[in-house]
Amino acid sequence: MQAAVFASLLLSAGVSAFYLPGMAPKNYHEGQRVELLVNALSSPESVLPYDQYYEKFHFCEPDAGKKAQSENLGSMLFGDRFYDSRFEINMKQDVKCKALCKQEIEISGEDAAFVNERIREKYALNWVIDQLPVAKVTADKKTKQEFYNLGFDFGHYSLAKGKRPAIEDAKDCVYNADVAPLRLAEDKSTKFQYVYSVTWERSDTLWSSRWNKYLTLTAASEPRIHWFSLINSIVIVLFLSGMVGMVLVRALYKDIARYNQMDSQEDPQEDFGWKLVHGDVFRTPVHSIFLSVMVGSGGQLFVMACMTL
């Protein structure tokens, strides 16, 4: 009996646990910089995203120029475009009305009209702090329950000139990150300065549950479906498919009519049209093993990508 137990222990496999890359809690020292990444601007009323550093927005780029961050497959398919930023955020160090750019920004009337149009379309800024998306705190009108909406308003029919991130920390880790745009009165001047403030607040939220507020779904937070774009794409696909089908049917009818005429003739003639390719589907292709492996691997990768997303 002891020999059997000893043999089973030898055959048992060792088990070790580990954190996935980027999923472990990151502890910061006081004064250590917390990186803020910017993503593309998005809108629930439009399917067209804009880069944070699009020239007509006149956002300040880092001194060394914008640097794209590495992205995974899911980010690429969702159209994310992460760049570094000029924001200097340090652990447990509050910032009040710090200038973001080295000099004042001057915006032309044409660019101002472009910005106002994007604001009317409800475009939102999307930032990421410590792999946590910056969100806007919103309350449901019926239940009064607070939840997080990813991103925050670009402005309120005027150029958004100030951002005030509020970051909650506990045990020197980032647990929450929300932003409220500062509403400033419109000025006739075309020059302005981007300023920002950072406030650190103690939080009782556990690191393992810091995503709970993002996972709370309400009728207001559910993503809107762009029905017009969807129906428009379906109509175009059906129209083009119908045109291709009509061309193929007409070509097939012509070939069938010619085959019927050949049956009434005594002189043999060579095959043409569909008769030349009707048996190709049963013909073994060149390098069939390699083709089957590639098709099988491609199908597996496609299914896994769909399941991952």
Automatic annotation (TrEMBL):
Family: Belongs to the nonaspanin (TM9SF) (TC 9.A.2) family.
One term under GO cellular component: membrane
Transmembrane segments: 227-253
Topology of the protein relative to the lipid bilayer: Multi-pass membrane protein
Keyword tags: Membrane, Signal, Transmembrane, Transmembrane helix
Name of the protein: Transmembrane 9 superfamily member
Coiled-coil features, chain-numbered ranges: none
Record's signal peptide: 1-17
Annotated compartments: Membrane
Coarse class of the protein's main subcellular location: membrane
A GO biological-process term: vacuolar transport
